[in-house]
Design brief:
Elements lengths: L7 E6 L10 E7 L5 H9 L16 E7 L2 E5 L10 H17 L3 E9 L6 H10 L6 E6 L6 H18 L3 E5 L8 H12 L6
Parallel strand pairs: 2-4, 2-5, 5-6, 6-7
Antiparallel strand pairs: 1-3, 3-4
């Protein structure tokens, strides 16, 4: 049984004052269309998060229960959402406050397309959360789109850059299509939650 086998939708949050009580939370963040929803569905082994070819569909903080008191929080995708500017600004403000002030947040999983890692928006997200000192784990998604040599080179480059500025960061290759990297991601998240990762 996987860590996320019982993952189930709990609630959606638009304003921080409506956040539900919890013990620990793991947030998932990523640039729009980087494969965040697909990664969550792959980890869950069933469809939970809405996958869309239109970037920016996740417009709320969506809470999924991992186990009693523990939640996976699917954050709004950042970047190319085709929404009014005032909504973008609201998302940005809510995201920043959540990442900077949420005491229950045990760690951040960032989703980056292995072909386009560390975009300016990714760096902004790291800037919001990095100073907290809490762990960050990066999934370089869509690794099946590159050869093994190319994917390994991207992993090495990202790892080296992060080591200098954000030593609490770890990074791995991930493919929702090939289901590769699932066990590694589960082990990291289970460690943050103090849970065993059962394969």
């Amino acid at each position: 049984m996987s860590l996320f086998s019982q993952l189930a939708f709990e609630t959606s949050v638009h304003e921080l004052h409506t956040l539900p009580p919890s013990a620990r939370e793991i947030a998932f963040a990523g640039r729009s269309n980087a494969g965040k929803s697909s990664a969550i569905n792959t980890l869950a082994r069933h469809k939970l998060a809405f996958v869309s070819k239109t970037p920016g569909r996740t417009q709320l903080l969506n809470f999924f229960r991992i186990s009693p008191g523990n939640y996976l929080v699917d954050l709004p995708g950042y970047g190319y959402a085709e929404v009014p500017e005032e909504i973008k600004k609201h998302w940005q403000a809510v995201l920043a406050r959540y990442l900077e002030t949420r005491e229950q947040l045990a760690g951040l999983v960032m989703i980056m397309d292995v072909r386009h890692p560390l975009t300016p928006l990714d760096r902004k997200m790291l800037g919001w959360f990095g100073p907290s000192g809490r762990p960050i784990h990066i999934l370089l998604t869509k690794s099946d789109k590159l050869s093994k040599t190319q994917a390994a080179a991207s992993l090495k480059q990202v790892s080296a850059e992060l080591k200098t500025h954000y030593p609490q960061c770890t990074v791995q290759l991930f493919s929702s299509l090939k289901k590769t990297g699932v066990e590694e991601a589960e082990a990291v998240i289970a460690g943050w939650l103090g849970l065993a990762s059962a394969q």
